[in-house]
Amino acid sequence: MTTPITLPVGATENSVRVHPGVLFTITDAFLRRKEENERVIGTLLGTIADGVVEVKNCYAVPHSETHDQVSLDVQHHHTMANLQQRVNSREVIVGWFSTGDPDASRNRDALIHTFYGSECANPVHLALDTSGGQDGHMGVRAFVSRALSIGGVELAREFLEVDCEVRSTEAERVGLDLLSTELQEKLPGDMDGLADSFERLQHSLQQAQDYVDAVVAGKRKGNVAIGRYLAETVATVPHYGRDEFERMLTDQQNDCTLVLFLSKLVQAHLALADKLGTMQLPLI
């Protein structure tokens, strides 16, 4: 009796369109990754129409990997997928992403791709080259896969590259133009914004003081509406004694310490959940 050989069939998706926000999310996840992780992987969300996959959103999935196996935090993946469905039910799982050179990790990619094959039909693999290359630009590539099976047993998986382009809306294009020009160097930082706010406040206080001094000295006729507004503004400023101020400051410090303690406790619980909810994908 002969064993049937199942040849690869053509992929139904023939092109991928990626929104810029997806690339920013992937890059941010790569910059925030753990030091021991060479790359980050995650889930792609979007829509599929007429063989075109439009990737609109994504989120990173905690993982660890060696040369022969990959561990995914499946619980985190399912939790994030459910939350995304509540926010936008039109966006579904369309595949997964990874950073780095995809040709250097095909064995592990096949395991991850098989897992996402159980999450959606014909998943797409989006690879973002974060090395920058020689020209300093990040390359974006998209792949689909097809399996070679004998007797219903999958023996190998082949990745085929498909057309991939970055597609942005008008609002996204405005943000990209801003970030791609010299204007981004002029954007104020947190400290610059705080200093500018203090300067505007000081200027407003100086104007109010000059107005009051001029009215008191008889150099300017007073306005009843302005005077009432200034009086109401001054009345809203609280007055505290030294002991009361020190007590309030101590209470604020204690509250901050409590919040810091709770955040560390949450981090410990998340780390424990990460270990318990991790699923290993053995090498085929």
Automatic annotation (TrEMBL):
Compartment annotation: Cytoplasm
First-listed, main subcellular location of the protein, grouped into a coarse class: cytoplasm
Xref: Pfam families: JAB, MitMem_reg
PROSITE patterns associated with the record: MPN (PS50249)
A single GO BP: formation of cytoplasmic translation initiation complex
CDD domains: MPN_eIF3f
Superkingdom field: Eukaryota
One term of GO molecular function: translation initiation factor activity
Keywords of the record: Cytoplasm, Initiation factor, Protein biosynthesis
Keyword Cytoplasm: yes
Gene Ontology CC terms, in alphabetical order: eukaryotic 43S preinitiation complex; eukaryotic 48S preinitiation complex; eukaryotic translation initiation factor 3 complex, eIF3m
UniProt xrefs under InterPro entries: eIF3f (IPR027531), EIF3F/CSN6-like_C (IPR024969), JAMM/MPN+_dom (IPR000555), MPN (IPR037518)
Positions of the MPN domain: 16-149
Self-association state and partner proteins as the record states: Component of the eukaryotic translation initiation factor 3 (eIF-3) complex.
Family: Belongs to the eIF-3 subunit F family.
Reported function: Component of the eukaryotic translation initiation factor 3 (eIF-3) complex, which is involved in protein synthesis of a specialized repertoire of mRNAs and, together with other initiation factors, stimulates binding of mRNA and methionyl-tRNAi to the 40S ribosome. The eIF-3 complex specifically targets and initiates translation of a subset of mRNAs involved in cell proliferation.
Protein name, as recorded: Eukaryotic translation initiation factor 3 subunit F
Species this chain originates from: Chlorella vulgaris (Green alga)
